[in-house]
Specification:
The structure is a single chain. With 154 residues, this protein is of the alpha+beta class. The chain is 27% helix and 23% strand. The chain has four helices and seven strands; from the N terminus they run αββββββαααβ. It has helices at 2-19, 94-98, 105-115, 120-127, and strands at residues 28-33, 39-45, 51-54, 57-60, 79-82, 88-92, 139-143. The chain has a four-stranded antiparallel sheet with strand order 4-3-6-7. A three-stranded antiparallel sheet has the order 1-2-5, covered by helices on one side. A hairpin with a 2-residue loop joins β3 and β4. The longest helix is centred in the first third of the chain and has 18 residues, at 2-19.
Length: 154
């Protein structure tokens, strides 16, 4: 899987480098999650770091390479993390953090997300200040349920 993610990032980067103006680029994060083990493998091409929330702690999936389209020969690496049962992964665009008023929007985002699992989206929406909202906001929340996996036996 690691080689597939690296290949995908490199191919998209080459395409964007070749066919877009030099002042244009894109950020992206490519993530593969194993449903059985919770293993996350990712390539983060200059995107806002997705956050894994697990048992009161957070892990950021930091950039493993530059944004796509900036450098034709850009190098990317894979990263790994684990989404354990009961944990949550938050993936978001910069429109979310850019629309949060005040200092340290990432910290406010983490606090709002961790406050109440049942009100996650409401907590995140409450952070958005319409006066600062100039970009799209995309939020993806993935929760790995705490129950047992149901296997099929023959």
């Amino acid at each position: 899987m690691e080689s597939t993610l690296l290949s995908l990032a490199k191919q998209i980067n080459k395409h964007l480098s070749r066919y877009t103006p030099s002042d244009r680029f894109a950020t992206a994060v490519f993530i593969v999650l194993s449903r059985d083990s919770g293993q996350l493998t990712y390539v983060n091409a200059g995107h806002n770091a997705p956050i894994v929330f697990s048992s009161g702690s957070t892990t950021s999936l930091e950039a493993t390479g530059p944004p796509l389209g900036l450098f034709d020969d850009a190098q990317y690496e894979t990263g790994t993390s684990v989404l354990s049962r009961g944990s949550t992964l938050l993936i978001f665009t910069d429109g979310l953090t850019d629309s949060i008023r005040g200092e340290h929007p990432e910290n406010r985002l983490r606090d709002a997300f961790a406050e109440s699992a049942g009100r996650t989206m409401a907590n995140l929406k409450a952070l958005v200040d319409p006066n600062f909202n100039e970009d799209d906001i995309t939020i993806l929340v993935v929760k790995r349920v705490a129950g047992h996996s149901s296997g099929v036996s023959a």
